[in-house]
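Bumping my old thread because nobody answered last time. Still need a sequence for this structure:
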């Protein structure tokens, strides 16, 4: 594997975590008092860990599966990986006891950090010569 692929494996979760932290802080700004929102660093660290686990459990196997099937194209990779992210968010919310409408609303909001993660892996690691 190339150094660009390793850069994508490290950098993509950080990018996804930054998007997650930004979305969370913006959405909490209107409903919390000043000083009550979570520290941005804790949001970035937790988001990066979730992104790294998703990357290793889903994105890398999808990448290798599509390469083996000779179907490694941007559309197939982004579609399969993004759908897996959305399904993971939705199922996690259902397991946490959130109803189906709340789970789908949360999964839609959390889709943007996942899409940032998937696109970063593609454009830095795969397209860059992994």
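Sorry it took so long. Here it is:
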């Amino acid at each position: 594997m190339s150094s660009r692929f390793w850069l994508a494996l490290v950098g993509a979760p950080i990018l996804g975590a930054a998007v997650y932290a930004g979305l969370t802080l913006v959405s909490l700004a209107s409903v919390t008092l000043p000083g009550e929102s979570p520290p941005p660093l804790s949001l970035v660290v937790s988001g990066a860990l979730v992104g790294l686990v998703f990357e290793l459990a889903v994105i890398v196997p999808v990448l290798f599966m599509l390469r083996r099937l000779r179907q490694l194209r941007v559309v197939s990779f982004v579609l399969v990986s993004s759908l897996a992210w959305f399904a993971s968010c939705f199922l996690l919310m259902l397991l946490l006891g959130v109803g189906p409408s709340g789970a789908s609303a949360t999964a839609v909001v959390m889709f943007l950090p996942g899409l940032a993660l998937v696109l970063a892996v593609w454009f830095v690691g795969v397209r860059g010569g992994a």
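The chain has a mean pLDDT of 88. Let me know if any region looks off to you.
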